[in-house]
Amino acid sequence: MTRLSLRQRLLMGVTLFSMFFGAGNLIFPPFTGYRAGSDAVPAFLGLISTAVLFPVLGIIATARAGGMDGLCRKVHPQFSKWFTLVIYLCIGPLLAIPRTASMAFSMMSFATAPAQSISLGPISAQQILAVVFSVVFFAASRFFAQRPSHLKDILGKILTPILLLLVLVLFSAGMVLLPAETGAPQPPYADAPFAAGFVEGYNTMDALAAMVFGILISVNIQDFGLQEEKQLRRETGISGLLAGGVLILVYGMLAVLGARASAVLPEASDGSVVLSGLCSLFFGNVGAALLAAIFLVACFNVCTGLLSSCASYFSKEFPRLSFMAWLNVFTVSGCVISVFGLGFILQISVPILTLIYPVALTIIVLNLFPFAFLEKPWVHRISVIAAFAYSVISML
User: Fold this and answer.
1) 124 membership: H or E segment, kind and range
2) Half-sphere exposure of 146 toward its Cβ, with a 13 Å CA cutoff?
3) Which pTM does this prediction carry?
4) Which of 207, 223, 230, 236 is close enough to 54 for a disulfide, judged by CB 3.0 to 4.6 Å?
5) In Å, how far from its chain's centre is CA 329?
């Protein structure tokens, strides 16, 4: 076998999309449309530049380099080792993995609202529900993540179609029930809609995830019988392009909903408020359940992919523990951290991600172009130092 069939490629593209499309990806597009209003088109183009283009380029660059080690080695072998480790820790067990459960639980308001006023001594029923939810959520994610080569069958064939159907139901309702007119653009979209959308897309942090998911997609492609390294890299890049196409389609539907919502909803503080307001407007009390289902499936897909990716990487780099042992470690740690709540996780994640994200983007770009001078280690070192300096300055 030298290449995948069209059906297999579509399956891999949808599987990769499901790993990218988490709760943050649900929130940012409608909020961009909501704030941009009549300037939603240029704002959306800016959004997909950083929310879709950079992650796709990350998948392609990682595939061409043969993994994150190949991406970072030109800087220095030790830098490659430690930066890769930091990326996996941040996008995995310390931040992104526990955030999936916390964000999913925060949207389960239809189930938890009645319990918010109940207190059982020093522990509220809300806290108990959070613990129970996290345990069940991570137990289910671990069950599906323990077979990395089967993720295409679980995410690509079952869960992602459910997610896309739910989003399509919401979009269809919006096209029927919402007026076509939009509100006036809000700052900063009123002055520079493309630039504002560009910055908003930066917040998805999917370029970091792209550097992690490359290995997992390659494993799933190998399960089809494709073993040649050159063909694996090619098919991984094609999967990235297909996933990007689906992301643009779904982001477009959500951005249109947000733009139309700007004319009917009062001021919203974030994308989750926009979506919850639309769901209540369209479906009443059932809307909360629909929105919770969308967030639950999206977060579950991402958590499963991250658990499998991180366990695969750590079992290869630190083989004293097996894949299943690392999977258990990350499942338990993610569950424990998630109980502290979404606010705590976001509070510690923002400064860490602000430091490493520009460095990651720089490494991706340097590995995309086949120019001879970009192969020189000193170019990579100077570029990475400059990117890190920019990160530090931006935090001051």
Assistant:
1) strand 123-124
2) 11
3) 0.81
4) 207
5) 22
